[in-house]
Amino acid sequence: xxxxxxxxxxxxxxxxxxxxxxxxxxxxxxxxxxxxxxxxxxxxxxxxxxxxxxxxxxxxxxxxxxxxxxxxxxxxxxxxxxxxxxxxxxxxxxxxxxxxxxxxxxxxxxxxxxxxxxxxxxxxxxxxxxxxxxxxxxxxxxxxxxxxxxxxxxxxxxxxxxxxxxxxxxxxxxxxxxxxxxxxxxxxxxxxxxxx
Length: 196
Fold this sequence. Notes:
The protein has 196 residues and is mainly beta. The protein is 0% helix and 41% strand.
């Protein structure tokens, strides 16, 4: 079967989908509200569906939870479902790698970072592409961190409140493993003993 949702936006994009243990389907998405005039100003967040394909009204009352974090560029990528049912999305806001967190109810997690989001210090073209939760609740994010003339693979760990975990060494930045001019990690997997 096919499910289509049209909320009147000029642009709607799905970036990643997961099926929860309860069978509900969660989509990480961006929406450009209103008439399309610019690529800027997207809303990012989550849509949650029941197993039968209908929007889950227990999630933000509509099944859709979106937020415009910036009037500039807001782009999602990967996401993870935390042990408590909350969702942490990865992406970038303007040129800063970013994470955002929504509760299982669809409400923005105001105790995460500032206003529900965490921004890495600005770098040209930096972005988080994937995120995972460790057994102790800390959050690992990977992606890219661009520099003039090239870039580096990016690795950062955060506490569950969005504060950076500086105990992760190598300055939280890893150079490209194959010596390429440009690098970007796309996925992250944690082994049972919590190795990355």
